Amino acid sequence: MPSVIPDSAQIGSETILGHFCVIGENVDIGSGCRIGHHVVIHDDTIIGHGCVIDDHSVVGKKPLKSRAMAIEPGADLPPLQLSDRVVVGTGAIVFRGSTVGTDSLIADLASVREGSLIGSSTIIGRGVAVENRVRIGNSVKIEAGAFICAFSDIGDGCFVAPEVTLTNDNFLGRTEERKQNYTGTRIERGGRIGANATVLPGRTIAPEGLIAAGAVATRDVDGKQMVAGVPARPLGRVPTEQLLPGEENISDPDQ
């Protein structure tokens, strides 16, 4: 079935387009890609070699604007860039102004907002919401339904379990002062968060820190420390055999 492909678009060899695709102006698609049915690729988007964009996905979309928005999306966002062998699942949305690294997966129904940077070999799970201006490192796994708030920074080798909520607004949507004080979560190398945990704004999880399932983290988590409960309290140390390679020499929190 016919697709909409302007003359300005470049499509590499052995790339396959599904039915009813809409390709924007100046789009550049590498070789050996597979574009599913009813996919929309917005203007200027850059897609590397060997990528898969599955059915009904939207990539390179500009963010909508509203007077009620607390965080302005910006007027001059650069094109979306998907590196080689990126996979974008069915119904996913990846916004203009973001970059996704080599061999990463944006799973079905996930969204990645503008100004975000996702590293290589990282998985953004089914239905995950990555808000704007988020940095996610390499070899990170974020499980289904997690909410990654704007301004968060997640280091290499981190794990975020299903339905985790990161927050950035200490004012709970009240007063204009909140707009000058948004602070996301910082999860440093190897940090982990269990299912349904909540992290309050501005908290840092130091390397190899761990927040247990269902916890509410109101304070920073020290390196190699486990915390649990509501509010979260120290529970013990992360076992040495669970540490990432090269992290064995992180000091214990009480040293």
Strand-residue fraction?
Answer: 25-35%
Distance between the termini: 66 Å
Can you tell me the number of structural domains?
Answer: 2
Give the biggest beta sheet. 12 strands, mixed
Mean pLDDT: 92
Proportion in helices: under 10%
**CATH superfamily of the largest domain, called what?**
Hexapeptide repeat proteins
What count of helical segments does DSSP give?
Answer: 0
Spatial ordering of strands, largest sheet: 2-5-8-11-14-17-20-23-26-29-31-32
Low-confidence stretches: none
Report the structural category. Answer: mainly beta
The geometry reads as globular
The total count of strands amounts to 32
Query: Architecture of the largest domain, CATH level 2?
Result: 3 Solenoid
As a whole number of angstroms, the C-alpha radius of gyration is: 20 Å
**CATH fold type of the largest domain:** UDP N-Acetylglucosamine Acyltransferase, domain 1
* Name of the top-level CATH class of the largest domain: Mainly Beta
Can you describe this structure?
By secondary structure, the chain is mainly β. The chain has strands at residues 10-11, 16-17, 22-23, 28-29, 34-35, 40-41, 46-47, 52-53, 58-61, 81-82, 87-88, 93-95, 99-100, 105-106, 111-112, 117-118, 123-124, 129-130, 135-136, 141-142, 147-148, 153-154, 159-160, 165-166, 186-187, 192-193, 198-199, 204-205, 210-211, 216-217, 225-228, 233-237. It has no helices and 32 strands. The protein has 2 domains: 1-62 and 80-102 and 112-124, 3 Solenoid (UDP N-Acetylglucosamine Acyltransferase, domain 1); 146-239, UDP N-Acetylglucosamine Acyltransferase, domain 1 (3 Solenoid), CATH 2.160.10.10. Strand 31 (225-228) and strand 32 (233-237) form a beta hairpin. The N and C termini lie far apart (66 Å). The strands form 4 sheets. The chain has a 12-stranded mixed β-sheet, with no helix packed on it. Strands 1-4-7-10-13-16-19-22-25-28 form a 10-stranded parallel β-sheet, with no helix packed on it. A 7-stranded parallel β-sheet has the order 3-6-9-12-15-18-21, with no helix packed on it.
